[in-house]
Amino acid sequence: MTTILRIDASARDTGSVSRGLGDTLERRLVAATPDARVVRRDLVAAPLPHIAQETIAGYYTPADQMTDALRRATALSDELIDELMAADVVIVTVPMYNFSIPSALKAWIDQIVRIGRTFSYDGSGFTGLVGGKKVYVVAAYGAAGYAPGEPFAAADFLTPYLRFLFGFLGMTDVTVFPVEATTAAPEVVAANRERAEQAIAGALAAA
Ligand SMILES: Cc1cc2nc3c(=O)[nH]c(=O)nc-3n(C[C@H](O)[C@H](O)[C@H](O)COP(=O)(O)O)c2cc1C
């Protein structure tokens, strides 16, 4: 059994480029993996709460000192981490909002980045504890020019951030499918989507 965890973050359901390309990616992955099971986390249809005082207290409380209140406050984090750990493949579909990720995705990240569970610290360095996964990121940008070396590269706090974050947790096998200029004229959008679809097909054929 191959478990695919799909995480969607666009506030748009209809017309979302990242979700649309995520559908293509998911379809191709499932077709290539007959025993695939897809687990979905739609962070907009079912928004996650932000972490709070008690959640953070629970993160830093040793297991043998946890109270019922702290266990309740970290129960969702436990569930999301278990879900991530159980996945073989992770698909994240994400739009750029204000040069970074949507807050819906940040809420998920704050629930799953947790000392002693998904990373450790030994006093001198950090170790990621979430290894052995393939991660695909479909990233939709309204403007263009975010690729390395291009004029807007320094403004891309989406893809470099997610690469760093996943790497920090031990997920270093990350493939990103960017699609830019999604707010341009329809023919430009169609051409860019087509290019991204081809990149997805090519990456999966080579995998
Ligand atoms: C609140 C908001 C903020 C946005 N900020 C940016 C931005 O900083 N840079 C950019 O290139 N596009 C920006 N966009 C455009 C989106 O990245 C673009 O429309 C993208 O296709 C959205 O993803 P979706 O099609 O999956 O919904 C923004 C869109 C919204 C709604």
Percent range for β-strand residues: 15-25%
Sheet with most strands: strand arrangement: 2-1-3-6-7
Please give the CATH architecture: 3-Layer(aba) Sandwich
Rg, Å, rounded: 18 Å
Measured distance between first and last alpha carbons: 18 Å
Count of discrete alpha- or pi-helical segments spanning 4 or more residues: 7
Q: What form results from the Cα inertia axes?
A: globular
Task: State the CATH superfamily name.
Answer: Flavodoxin domain
Mean pLDDT: 97
**Total separate domains:** 1
Structural class of the secondary elements?
A: alpha/beta
Main beta sheet, described? 5 strands, parallel
What is the count of β-strands? 7
- Low-pLDDT windows of residues: none
Which range best describes the helical content: under 10%, 10-25%, 25-40%, 40-55%, 55-70% or over 70%? Answer: 25-40%
* Helix-strand topology string: EHEHHHEHEEEHEH
Name of the CATH class:
Alpha Beta
Structural write-up:
- By secondary structure, the protein is of the alpha/beta class.
- It has one domain: Rossmann fold (3-Layer(aba) Sandwich).
- It contains 7 helices and 7 strands.
- β4 and β5 form a beta hairpin.
- α1 packs parallel to α7 (186-206).
- Flavin mononucleotide binds next to α1.
Distinctive features:
Rossmann fold, two-stranded antiparallel sheet, 5-stranded parallel β-sheet, single chain, alpha/beta, 207 residues
Layout of helices and strands:
Elements lengths: L1 E7 L8 H16 L3 E7 L10 H7 L8 H6 L1 H12 L2 E7 L7 H10 L6 E3 L4 E3 L5 E7 L18 H10 L4 E7 L6 H21 L1
Parallel strand pairs: 1-2, 1-3, 3-6, 6-7
Antiparallel strand pairs: 4-5
Helix pairs in contact: 1-7
Bound molecules: flavin mononucleotide (FMN).
